[in-house]
Amino acid sequence: MIIKCDGCGWKWNLSKGGKNPYVCNKCGMDNFEKYNNKGIGVIPITMLISAVPSAITFIRNISQRPAGEARDIINGVKQQITSQDARTRLATVISGSQQNFKAADVDVNELLFWYRQNYPNDYKELKAEDKEYWNSYLNGYRQRFLMERPDLQNNFLNRSYFTKEQINYKPQTPGSPGTQTAGMNMWVTLGIVGAGILLITKMKK
Prior knowledge:
Strand content: under 5%
Oligomer: single chain
Number of helices: 9
Helix content: 40-55%
Largest sheet: 2 strands, antiparallel
Radius of gyration: 24 Å
Mean pLDDT: 77
Order of helices and strands: EEHHHHHHHHH
């Protein structure tokens, strides 16, 4: 089976792909979702990501230098995502990042890490699969990033991952055991305080 990378168009034989047969050795993109057809929710995040480039074509008016090109793309992405929902925002960030491999250090610091710092609560709205896809994207990015620029520090990349707690986050709904426990604890506390006040009042009499 021949695998064609969605990121750069590189082709290789699946049987010769090594431990990570779907990860492109040229650009680091993980193509697993494309060839295994695993959807996320109603629309697979991969389809959402692939649809984003058409919405950011205006960003293409850019300079020849990799860092300058990357920053133009990043600035366009930052303008777009302010009015997007969490899933579309994640897809837009990844789509923009896929265009910045020539300036990995700029992309990691000024887009990937920036996104996680400026939208810290998106994990509450994203599906677990979306967050796992993001972490998988960072893993593929790390392979290429370290291969081409071993001199760079990866603190920003390390801090861009969703944690296990964030991936497994489930919002509490009214009437859930956690909410009921919190309510019971409040009434117990109020009862103790009330009893203490009553006791003090009787002692003064």
